[in-house]
Amino acid sequence: xxxxxxxxxxxxxxxxxxxxxxxxxxxxxxxxxxxxxxxxxxxxxxxxxxxxxxxxxxxxxxxxxxxxxxxxxxxxxxxxxxxxxxxxxxxxxxxxxxxxxxxxxxxxxxxxxxxxxxxxxxxxxxxxxxxxxxxxxxxxxxxxxxxxxxxxxxxxxxxxxxxxxxxxxxxxxxxxxxxxxxxxxxxxxxxxxxxxxxxxxxxxxxxxxxxxxxxxxxxxxxxxxxxxxxxxxxxxxxxxxxxxxxxxxxxxxxxxxxxxxxxxxxxxxxxxxxxxxxxxxxxxxxxxxxxxxxxxxxxxxxxxxxxxxxxxxx
Length: 314
Known about the structure:
Elements: H1 2-7, E1 11-15, H2 23-36, E2 40-44, H3 47-60, E3 67-72, E4 81-85, H4 95-99, E5 105-106, E6 109-110, H5 120-124, E7 130-134, H6 139-149, E8 153-157, H7 163-176, E9 180-185, H8 192-203, E10 211-216, H9 227-242, E11 248-252, H10 259-265, E12 272-275, H11 277-281, H12 284-287, H13 295-312
Parallel strand pairs: 1-2, 1-12, 2-3, 3-8, 8-9, 9-10, 10-11, 11-12
Antiparallel strand pairs: 4-7, 5-6
């Protein structure tokens, strides 16, 4: 993976979602965006999801220069939370059913494997009937199995204020995996100095340029495809760039079709763009179809995905 990154000016990373546990969705996202030119696929750290992503790559017919990154979160990280509905408070208005971007709520009930932790339902519930609950994993058990199955990168979402949890997970990851690592970080809970201090400490154990810093703006917010939404992601990338760290920079969090253009206007020296919410949204109507792999349906979705990848690799 390192050699591929070095040889290419920019890469496109599809974020299936650290909390997305729907095997069918992950398989289809991977198959479609692999065919469209995406090279890195971010998935949750579960063996069955890794199998689904590998099946998606196989169905795309493209296995060369395709890399799978498993994402690990921690307490307080929205990427590993799941929505829970309190039936005693729920007024069954149906608003949450319509606002969920991943169709994870049906008839006022949560389909847990589809919930990606975006919190849109809980933030907009008029009765405060929905809460977000952490769903952590035991890395010492899961990571060795994933490594044995074949992965190319492990990403840690280091956004939490809980330092102890971060260092514990970072040590476990470095212990079990000696390949490319990625650190996803934003400024939701940390100031600029804290962000850089944390990254410098994490990099003490790393060989130069064996780490990706995924500069996150506002996670899971890019679906409106505006410059304003992606502004914070580009600003975060600039902070990492100005620190001159021996890392590759990927822009993420609020990313969309405008990100590459804004990053170049701002003279950001980035290695790639990771897109999740927007990349999934624009092809979601096709992903949910029972005839998704019908050539006519697949090719319609493929054109949309190709346009996004092309816009992101300028």
